[in-house]
Design a protein that fits this description.
Helix content: 40-55%
Strand order of the largest sheet: 1-2-3-4-5-6-7-8
Shape: globular
CATH class: Alpha Beta
Strand content: 15-25%
Oligomer: single chain
CATH topology: TIM Barrel
Radius of gyration: 17 Å
Length: 230
């Protein structure tokens, strides 16, 4: 139950499950969000490759970036160059978008693409690779193929959504974990509240990706206080 999970989870434990996402293109907004984000023990901060070094100047934890984002349709040679550049800039892990169009056109090529993405990411140096699959845009049969493809590729996480083309739902995580309980899931795309975050975790999400990490923690604190009222 969510109530039990709320009471059993500490603030720091919840923060350690959140990839705080800062993908604004406005420099002033970026600086403000970064300044506030580093005050909290998030699992990592995720940002554009161009901002990796700015994050590393003030953040001593893991730095994550995105690749093939958001369309997921770069030729492999261009994607490899992008991944290599992000590694050289200091990223520790990467979230790579793969277009859902590919699974609809050719499942075999989708599997090969995902496998190659993970392979080149490992060769470059990334120890943690997440594959973004856009679960809300897939049928259950397509999601079954995608889930098994991500699992077979050796990727560390299946990430549900970029949040640009679609918003994740609790159903997405439920379906993925039903298809393969061993797949680690990063739920992302429109997650903004503490109870919603806990619900995703309760369904089996290992990580939550959100640009509202601070708001989630603040709401979590409020819920904790309300829960202590008698």
């Amino acid at each position: 139950m969510l109530t039990e999970l709320l009471h059993a989870t500490t603030r720091d434990e919840l923060a350690a499950r959140i990839d705080q996402t800062i993908l604004t293109l406005d420099n002033k907004e970026f600086s403000t969000e970064l300044r506030e984000s580093v005050k909290h023990p998030f699992r990592c901060i995720l940002t554009w490759p161009m901002n990796i070094q700015k994050v590393k100047e003030v953040w001593r934890n893991r730095v994550c970036t995105v690749a093939n984002f958001p369309s997921g349709m770069l030729p492999l040679q261009a994607l490899e160059k992008e991944l290599s550049n992000s590694w050289d800039l200091g990223a520790d892990e990467v979230d790579v978008a793969i277009s859902p169009v590919l699974i609809k056109l050719d499942p075999t090529k989708y599997r090969e693409y995902v496998k190659y993405v993970v392979s080149i990411s490992r060769d470059i140096g990334f120890s943690t690779v997440k594959i973004i699959v856009e679960t809300p845009l897939l049928s259950i049969e397509e999601l079954k193929v995608v889930t098994h493809a991500v699992e077979a590729s050796g990727a560390d996480y299946l990430k549900t959504s970029t949040g640009i083309f679609s918003k994740s739902s609790l159903k997405d995580v439920y379906v993925v974990k039903s298809i393969s309980p061993h797949v680690n899931v990063k739920a992302s795309g429109g997650i903004k509240g503490a109870l919603e975050t806990l619900a995703y975790i309760d369904l089996g999400a290992s990580i939550i990706g959100s640009s509202s990490g601070i708001k989630i923690l603040e709401e979590f604190d409020q819920l904790k206080r309300i829960g202590s009222l008698k």
